[in-house]
Amino acid sequence: MALRTLLTRKPLATVPRGVGIGMLQSRSLKTFTLPDLPYYYEALEPAISGQIMQLHHQKHHQTYVTNYNKALEQLAKAMTIGDAPTIAKLQSTIKFNSGGHINHSIFWKNLAPEGGGEPPKGSLCLAIESNFGSFEALIQKMNAEGAALHGSVAWFGQGVHEACGGNHCK
Q: In what helix (H) or strand (E) does residue 29 lie, and over which residues does it extend?
């Protein structure tokens, strides 16, 4: 999924020419919106309760969206007045909340009410066994390395692609 599909086309603010830094000088800042789920909250029961899904989507994910949009407003204001220290401080807030939003947007699409939950087969299975020894060993490695990442999210496809040297897992 392209990143641009996660962004709205609604400009928050246009940064005036001559004010600001780098590419932001002539671009509009784009806000995020909470995406609709492609299924009902209850659709994943009994594996995940509808109440947990609703809370995770409407409260947790919405917090990333709200905080990102708020940081963009603050950034636009700071850029207008040339407040470099505030611009620098906002970078980590924007990175954290945009990452949280993007990760969750991917997460919702990876869940499926009729998901198979079966181990990989075919060439993917062979690549996993060749590089990790077993599917269980891959899961352990991804869990261990993912726990060290910001937000505790590791994306399976990227990890396998890198582990295979980019050659086997396409």
A: strand 28-30
